[in-house]
Amino acid sequence: MKPTEIRTLYSIYKNTAGVFTDTRKPLQNGLFFALSGPNFNANSFAHKALSLGAKAAVVDDKVLAQENENFFWVENSLQSLQDLARFHRKQLSTTIVGLTGSNGKTTTKELMSSVLQTHFKTVATKGNLNNHIGVPLSLLAIDPETEIAVIEMGANHQGEIATLCDIASPDLGYITNFGKAHLEGFGGIEGIIKGKTELYRFLEKNKGTILCNADDPTQLEHTQNLQSKCYTFGCNETVDFPIKYDTSKTLTVHTENGVIQSELYGNYNLTNIGAAAALGNYFKIPFKKIQTGIATYKATQNRSETRKLGTNMVILDAYNANPTSMKHALNSFFDQFLTNRVLILGDMLELGAYSAVEHQNIVNLIQQQVDCQSFLVGKVFAKTKFETTQIQSFETIQLLGNWLKENEFHNKNILIKGSRGLALEDVLAYLEV
Asked: What DSSP line would sit under 219-270, residue for residue?
């Protein structure tokens, strides 16, 4: 018995409704890939997948594969998923936009998609399917009629972006920024820069195009000596798409063609808006459509959402956090709100040896503010030092919730931000008064 070849798998895939990997979310007439983890053997779910309506299942258990004619044996299910996605990508005429960076990836992806779909048949990575499993799934969801796809690429150590580029083969790439995210895995900021710029090196090798924020000196430094075509945007008039940023009322980007406005919150989103507008201009989308694409996008999924809870204004930015995004969020909040300020901040995870000092740096920053009541949540923040009664620390959300039950907020401006592992959005239940 030989492993199933990719061409055979591809013909099977083409006759299904698509690929899925989770029997809790079955796909009728889909192709199930049994992707095992450290604590479970996904091959054991193959029979269940068929019973739920899957047309076939890919397994890497040779004995199991003989139990059903709709089981197809491969040596490694994950590798086969990636190979299948790579093969599918080569059959597509779709232009692939690859997107990575430390902060703002998903918001930028959604803004880009919102602009592109005003003029092209466009798809984009759903949710946070941006890793070694998510990128293949995103690619396999692209149909041949799709003109442009925006593929988000996440990474927490060097080599990952290179691997994802090899699978997705982007035609154009953009790095949002280089911030202090996943410091533990990358080994410091220099490791982050080296890891993220793997996207540049792929595009250089494959004659792709780089979208570059010319206001970012790190992006300029790592693109100036490349032979790749570089399409630039920023506040310098010499760039390909010159823009000016304005935060006097709403987030506004001034261009040579007119004004672009967004309903997003936070000054840190201005460059995300600029990148989406620049991409639209690169693809020669009419300016009015670019304006519409930006203006109609609304934040979701706990990313810079603004919510009115009773008499309180809440900025919910609890999808994730690292030292860079935390500082950006705080500074934007301090600039916009001068009184009645409340911070609910959760631990920033995956910082390794940098964790203690980076959390203390955040505490030092908020201690400088007046009229700002701060609540720190998590075991790392609990170990920080502060010398003001304006700051309180709780190891868990439940402990903070107990305090909030006894101390209601009224007419406050509240920023909620922390790493995904803390699920700080759960605090909202205690604020709905």
From this structure: HHHHHTT--SEEEEEESSTTSSEEEEEE-SSSEEEEETTEEEEE----GGGH
Q: Which of 25, 68, 424, 240 is nearest to 58 (CA)?
A: 68
Domains in the chain, CATH or no CATH each: 6-77 (3.40.1390.10), 92-295 (3.40.1190.10), 305-431 (3.90.190.20)
pLDDT digits (tens, 9 = 90+) for 373-411: 999 999 999 999 998 899 999 999 999 999 998 998 899
Answer whether 229's CB lies under 8 Å from 171's CB. Answer: no
The CA distance from 62 to 72, in Å, is: 9
Burial zone of 227 (CB within 10 Å; 0-12 exposed, 13-18 middle, 19+ buried): exposed
Closest to 179 in 3D by CA, of 165, 167, 190, 168: 190
**What pTM does this model have?**
0.88
> Which is nearest to 221 in space by CA: 253, 196, 202?
196
Count of CB atoms situated within 10 Å of the CB of 37? 7
Q: Give buried/exposed letters for 389-426 (b at 16+ CB in 10 A, else e).
A: ebbebbbebeebbeebeeeebeebbbbbbbbeebebbe
- Please give the Cα distance from 314 to 287 (Å, whole number): 33
DSSP state of 37: B
Please measure the distance between the N-terminal and C-terminal CA atoms of the chain and give it in whole angstroms: 65
Tokens of 265: 């919150």
CA dist., res. 223 & res. 255, Å (int): 24
User: How many CB atoms neighbour CB 257 within 10 A?
Assistant: 14
The answer to whether 313 touches 247, Cβ cutoff 8 Å, is: no
* pLDDT (tens digit per residue) in 271-284: 999 999 999 999 99
* DSSP secondary structure code for residue 408 in this structure: -
Q: Please state, as a whole number, how many other Cβ atoms lie within 10 Å of the Cβ of residue 383.
A: 14
